[in-house]
């Protein structure tokens, strides 16, 4: 199973921990983090621990906008979409791979989600568009 690089539930990761484990990937983490706050200044950060280790949630009062899950030298981004937002993603100028993955995702009562690996800048533009749709 895909687990966080940070597993010790007694130690909440710090910014320096992120910089150390993500290495060059930290710039993409920071870019996505800052983009959410640019688009939604009232967002809140929250580290959460589960059986898969620590993940970083950026949320508003009612929902999680985006999940960031640190790994060794990279991270995953997860975003969930209700039906209306899903339809917007299908019309958006994001990669066909993202559309296909989201279309194939299991549909739950709250919608469907997608998880993307961020190892370089190649998916950051698409993630920004997904965030725009999620927030709108």
Describe it.
The chain is built from 5 helices and 5 strands. The protein has 136 residues and is α+β, with helices and mostly antiparallel strands. The protein has one domain: Aspartate Aminotransferase, domain 1. It has a 5-stranded antiparallel sheet with strand order 1-2-3-4-5. A hairpin with a 4-residue loop joins strand 2 and strand 3. Helix 2 packs parallel to helix 5 (124-135). The chain starts with 14 loop residues before the first helix and ends with a helix.
Task: Write a compact overview of the structure shown.
It contains 5 helices and 5 strands. The protein is α+β, with helices and mostly antiparallel strands and 136 residues long.
Low-confidence stretches: none
Distance between termini?
Answer: 33 Å
CATH architecture classification: Alpha-Beta Complex
**Overall pLDDT score:** 95
The coarse silhouette is globular
Main sheet makeup:
5 strands, antiparallel
Strand content: 25-35%
The portion of residues assigned to helices is 25-40%
Instruction: Provide the CATH top-level class.
Output: Alpha Beta
Q: CATH fold name, please?
A: Aspartate Aminotransferase, domain 1
The total beta strand count reads: 5
List the topology elements:
Elements: H1 15-22, H2 26-39, E1 44-50, E2 53-59, E3 64-70, E4 75-81, H3 83-91, H4 96-104, E5 112-118, H5 124-135
Antiparallel strand pairs: 1-2, 2-3, 3-4, 4-5
Helix pairs in contact: 2-5
Which key features would you list for this structure?
single chain, five-stranded antiparallel β-sheet, alpha+beta, 5 helices, Aspartate Aminotransferase, domain 1, 136 residues
């Amino acid at each position: 199973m895909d687990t966080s690089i940070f597993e010790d539930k007694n130690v909440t990761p710090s910014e320096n921990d992120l910089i150390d484990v993500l290495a060059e990937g930290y710039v993409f983490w920071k870019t996505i983090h800052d983009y959410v706050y640019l688009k939604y200044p009232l967002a809140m950060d929250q580290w959460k621990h589960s059986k898969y280790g620590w993940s970083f949630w950026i949320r508003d009062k009612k929902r999680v906008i985006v999940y960031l899950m640190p790994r060794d030298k990279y991270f995953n981004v997860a975003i969930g979409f209700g039906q209306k937002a899903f339809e917007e993603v299908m019309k958006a100028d994001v990669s066909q791979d993202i559309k296909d993955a989201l279309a194939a995702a299991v549909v739950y009562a709250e919608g469907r989600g997608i998880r993307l690996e961020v190892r370089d800048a190649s998916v950051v533009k698409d993630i920004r568009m997904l965030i725009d749709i999620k927030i709108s």
